[in-house]
């Protein structure tokens, strides 16, 4: 093929990035790229296996001569990418290659996401597998799938034949940071089956608007307003002064996003509609004042609505309102070891209504499994008291910070030697595959890092090619040091 990326080092890793960019690889569409990586490894004569259900690929490469007795190193990243494009961009993510170009030293894709998240890791691993002039311990390269939709490949990857002592995850950045901890997750699917009855009284429509929202990992400690919780507060306030029947309730769209908007339609006793609107408006104004410094755009659209045919029973409505009002949301615990790090949080992210009743989605994040389980138990106990169901769920493990990490110390030392700068150790409240693999292989010493790449998950995504090269050199230096120590 004719390569767009020319004149940059390391040319081999960038060539592989360009080759995988020609293969559609959105989440749940990894079969072709997984087969490509597997065939690539087999053509090199390397030991490789492919999971034809989840499309994870594992490739093993023997140590360079004289390093056979050194502990193995796992290098890990995911095959899939987020598929987003600008309006008007004619691109089919199911069949079209990415249209790569370079601008001011940045690699980009015209009108679409670039897939540096996490094509950078795939390219690095392929270059390491292909090169025979490097000094390194035994390598175990793990290519996972469906990371972008819940770390699904990592949850299913078979590690029974892996023996690595160290793990390099190349799914983080920017350059100059090393990640040392991440949160796990627990998804709570919450439901309340209701009894419907003929509606009566005044109908009132409420719409919470103007909140900023944000990612429930990165923004959970920014005191952003949660529209579903605000709606619960409003309905609870009305309910304290009159009977409230829910007709419908909705809000949010993703478990991992703080909901910006929510809607409710309720009925109240005949002649009480204006009073309900007055109560709701007062509570919304109070909430807006409380959020003035962090999320001050909150406003409530509230008005009488036309008559509706059905409403939920009073008992069911009360239980739903009280659950939303009382359920924990936001930061639950903070770290004492790493100031500013959220250890555990909860985000009530989605609310919907159908013929059976109301469904809610809550997502707990935690790097500490005991705190996660305690919060889960709190929420489940509240649900049980209010006759609300929460489906059983398996947690996604987190990666708890460990003060002692020889790999991290070595990596930071090599970075300073390479750049003259101090590397910053960072813990994230977001989810990484590191937590899942640490759970499967508890003795792993893990670091997560990557080159500078901006705009992930958007058509503005870019990869800094100079940073890509420096990170490549740091990987080589780390492997060489591990082989020689």
TrEMBL record:
Keywords: Cobalt, Hydrolase, Metal-binding, Metalloprotease, Protease, Zinc. Residues 214-292 form the Peptidase M20 dimerisation domain. Its cofactor is Co(2+); Zn(2+). It is an enzyme of class 3 (hydrolase). GO terms for cellular component: cytosol. One of its GO terms (biological process) is proteolysis. GO terms for molecular function: metal ion binding; metallodipeptidase activity. Its EC number is 3.4.13.18. It catalyses: Hydrolysis of dipeptides, preferentially hydrophobic dipeptides including prolyl amino acids. Belongs to the peptidase M20C family. NCBIfam families: aa-his-dipept. This is Cytosol non-specific dipeptidase. It comes from Neobittarella massiliensis.
